[in-house]
Amino acid sequence: MSTRSRTVTATVSIALLSIVALLPFYIMVVMGTYKNEDLFTKIVLYPGNYLVENFKTVAASRFDLAYWNSFVVSAASTLLSVFVSALAGFAFAKYDFRYKSKIFGAVLLTMMIPGQLGLVAYVIEMRYLNLSDTLMPLILPWVANAFGVYWMTQFIRGAVPVEVIESARIDGCSDLGIFFRIVLSFIYPALTTLSLLVFLWSWNNYLLPLIVINKPEMYTIPLGITTLGSAYRTDLAAQILGLSIGTLPVLVLFAIGSKSFIRGLTAGSVKG
Amino acid sequence: MMDVVKRKWAPYLFLSPYMLFYAAFGLIPILFSFYVSLTSWNGIGKKTFVGLDNYAFLFNPDSYFFTSVGNTLLFVAVSLPLQMAFGLAIASLLYSKFVKWKAFFQLVNFLPYIVTPVAVGLMFNLLFDWQAGFVNKLLLEFGLIDEGIYWLGEPMYARVVIILMLFWKGFGYTMIFYLAGLANISKDLHEAAAVDGATGMKSFWTITLPLLRPVTTFVAITGIIGGFQLLEEPMLLLGGAGMGSASAVIGGPERCCLTTVWNMYDTAFGSTTRYGLGAAIAYGLCVIIAVFSFVGTKFYREES
Lengths: 272, 304
Known about the structure:
The structure holds two protein chains of two kinds.
Chain A (H helix, E strand, L loop, with lengths): L2 H29 L4 H6 L9 H9 L3 H32 L5 H13 L6 H10 L7 H8 L2 H14 L2 H9 L4 H12 L1 H17 L2 H6 L8 H11 L4 H31 L6
Chain B lengths: L9 H28 L1 E2 L7 E2 L3 H6 L6 H31 L6 H13 L2 H11 L6 H8 L13 H30 L2 H9 L4 H12 L1 H16 L3 H7 L21 H10 L5 H29 L1
Antiparallel strand pairs in B: 1-2
Helix pairs in contact in B: 1-13, 3-7, 3-10, 3-12, 4-7, 5-11, 7-11, 10-13, 12-13
C-alpha cells in the first residue's frame, strides 16, 4: 500500500471509531430540538425546529441559578485547592524539615482512601456547623487535596531553580514573598493543569450535593439536571435540552485545555 | 541536600493550611465515621453502641453488601477489558504516522470521559427508553425486533446497558494512558525490528504490547478502584429521575445493578437512615479497595 492510501485508510477507520464516542452526544443534541410528541413517534436523525420553545421551558426552571451555584462552587474549590496545594508543594519541594518524608508519605497514603469513607460523618459535621443548605460543604473537601500536593511537589521540585530562591533571599525577600513573587511565576503550567482537574471534578460532583443540599435555589448543575426530570416529567425534549446545556461548559473547558488536562491525568503513570 | 533550603518555621507555616483543612474535613469525619459504624443511629435520635454488629450484618444477604460488591465487580470485569482493547486500538491508530488530525480525534474520543456522570446516566436512559429510545426505534425500523425491548426493566438487559455505558464512558481514559505509554517507547526499537523484517502487526505483538505492560497494569488497577466508586451512572440510568421510565427502583430490577456506593447512599440517606450501617458499608468498601490497591501496586512495582 502506498503511504497515501494508508493515510486514508487509517484516518477513515479512526473517524468511524470516533463515531462511537460522538453518536450519543449527537442524538442528545438533536432530540433537544424536537417537539416532545415527535420524539415518541419518529426517529430523529437531523436537527428539528423546536429548539427555541424547548429553551424557554428550560429557562423557566431557573436553570441559570444552578449554573451560578455550580460556578461559585467550582471556582472557589479550584482557587482554594490550587493555592493550598502549591503552598504545601513548595514546602515539600524546597525545604528540609523534621519528619518530611514521613509527612509526605502520609499525604500520599490519603490519596488512596476513597472519598466516601468519611461521608456519613462529614454530613453530620456539616449539620452540626449549620452549613447544610449552603454551598460551603461542597467547597471544603477540595481545599486539602492530596493529589494537588503531590502534583505541585513534583512540579516545583523540577521547575523552580534553587539559585533564584537563594538570590531572592539575599536581596531580603521573605519566604512568603518568595512563594508569591517567584515560585508562582515558575509554575503556571502546573497551576493550569490542577485548576482544570479540580474544576471538572467539582463541577461533576453529585453525591455530596444530593445529600447536603435540599433547597432548590442552592442546586448545582448535576442536581438541576436530575430535577428537570421530575419537574417536567411530560416534557422529555426540554429535559434533554437541559442535559445538553448542563454538559456544555465542561466540554468547552476541556476542549480549550485538553493538553494540559491529559498531562495532569496521566501524571505518574508512565515513568519517563 | 543541596537542593533544599533550611528554614525552621517556614515549611510548617506553608503546610499548615493543608494540614488544618485535612484534619477538619478529612480526618475527623473518617475517624468519627468509624465510631458511627459501631453504633445504631438514625442521625437524629440517640446513638446506641452495638459493637461490631453492623459489620456482622454486612455478611447477611439483607444488607445487599456482597450483592453490590459482586455487581460492581461484574461491571468492571466485563467493561474494563473492552475499554482497554478499544482504547489501545484507537491509541495505536492515533500514534501511527498515517493518521491526520490527531489532536481532534484524541479530543473527540476523550469527551465521554469528562461528561458529568449524571448526564451520562440520563443520556443512556433516553437512548434505551423502551418507548421513545433511539435504540428500540432503530431495531424496530430495521425489523430486528417486533416490539420494543424493555431494556431497563429486565435484570439481564439492564446489566448489558450498564456495561455498554461504562465502556462508552471509559475507553477514552484508557486511550490517553496508552498514548502516553506509546510515546515513551523508543522509535529505535521499531526501526530495528523493521530492519529485521518484522511487519507492523508482528512488531506490535512482540515489541509494543509487552512494553506497554506497566501501562496496562496501571490502567487495570485505577480502573478497578475507580469502578468500585461507581454510583451516578447506574443511579440515573435506573433510578427513575423521571426520564420516561416507569419505576424508580433501588438498584434497578431485582437490585441487579446496585453498586456498593449506591448501597451506602441508600442505606444512610435514601430509603433508610441507618447511619451506622452506612458507615460500616463505607469501611467495608475501603477494605476491599485497599486489598485491590495492595495487590495491584505489588504487580505494578514488579513490572516497572
